């Protein structure tokens, strides 16, 4: 991980716009939906930035643009040489593969080698509290178990910028508290975190700065 000053800008968004083509069936022309428009801000090294907004405000879309998963239709995202990975609870896992293999694949997508992920597997297993379930296919997991796996992988294999989409809002109360405590440690370290949340109070509690969409 890179260390540096808190006033280093590591990613800049300049007037970013994203629109989606919406199909209207066979006999009508598609139209366009402007999911994001004119978004400009800087992300500083080491900060924890909360992104809030109502359903459909474009929060998940914004994280995808920052992660480079989708390209903006206007404006630009300038990455000053950092890795940014998106953690969501819905996507990313192969249900047929066991938790361990999913952790390895996830880590490799963030630029780690298999050996590097394996070296952290005991920590991931312990934090997630999945135990022997780590050897079971992810399709047999409950949604809470999936979120524990995703969160634990992200915590132990952090890219320079960790993009978290609603990951603190699931799981049982106990795990949520443990996850939040772990997040607080990251926040007080060099780790840069962008956190999307429906909960304004959670953002107030966890983040140093917030952006409303
Ligand atoms: N692939 C897509 N094709 C068409 N429209 C899309 C697509 N992805 C998102 N949208 C639309 O863009 C808007 C923003 O979606 P996004 O998922 O970014 O919102 P959000 O703020 O994360 O919402 P939520 O709080 O409900 O998770 C929504 O109106 C959604 O319908």
Automatic annotation (TrEMBL):
Q: Which SUPFAM superfamilies match?
A: P-loop containing nucleoside triphosphate hydrolases (SSF52540)
CDD domains membership:
ABC_KpsT_Wzt
Q: Name one GO cellular component term.
A: membrane
InterPro entries (UniProt xref): AAA+_ATPase, ABC_transporter-like_ATP-bd, ABC_transporter-like_CS, ABC_transpr_TagH-like, Bact_Polysacc_Export_ATP-bd, P-loop_NTPase
Query: What Gene3D superfamilies is this protein classified in?
Result: P-loop containing nucleotide triphosphate hydrolases
Assigned keywords, A-Z:
ATP-binding, Nucleotide-binding, Transport
What one GO molecular function would you report for this record? ATP hydrolysis activity
Question: Any idea where the ABC transporter domain is?
Answer: 21-213
Query: Family, per the entry?
Result: Belongs to the ABC transporter superfamily.
This protein's name = ABC transporter related protein
Q: Which organism is it from?
A: Alcanivorax dieselolei (strain DSM 16502 / CGMCC 1.3690 / MCCC 1A00001 / B-5) (Alloalcanivorax dieselolei)
């Amino acid at each position: 991980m890179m260390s540096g000053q808190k006033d280093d800008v590591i990613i800049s968004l300049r007037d970013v716009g994203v629109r989606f083509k919406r199909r209207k069936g066979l006999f009508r022309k598609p139209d366009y939906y402007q999911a994001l428009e004119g978004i400009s801000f800087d992300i500083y090294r080491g900060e924890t930035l909360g992104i809030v907004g109502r359903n459909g405000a474009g929060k998940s879309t914004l994280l995808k643009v920052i992660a480079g998963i989708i390209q903006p239709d206007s404006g630009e995202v300038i990455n000053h040489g950092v890795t940014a990975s998106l953690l969501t609870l819905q996507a990313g896992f192969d249900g047929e593969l066991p938790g361990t293999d999913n952790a390895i694949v996830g880590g490799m997508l963030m630029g780690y080698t298999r050996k590097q992920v394996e070296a952290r597997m005991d920590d991931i297993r312990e934090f997630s509290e999945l135990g022997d379930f780590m050897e079971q296919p992810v399709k047999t997991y409950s949604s809470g178990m999936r979120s524990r796996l995703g969160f634990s992988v992200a915590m132990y294999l952090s890219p320079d910028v960790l993009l978290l989409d609603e990951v603190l809002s699931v799981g049982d109360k106990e795990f949520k508290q443990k996850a939040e405590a772990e997040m607080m440690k990251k926040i007080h370290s060099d780790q840069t975190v962008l956190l999307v949340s429906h909960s304004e109070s959670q953002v107030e509690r966890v983040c140093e700065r917030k952006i409303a969409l």
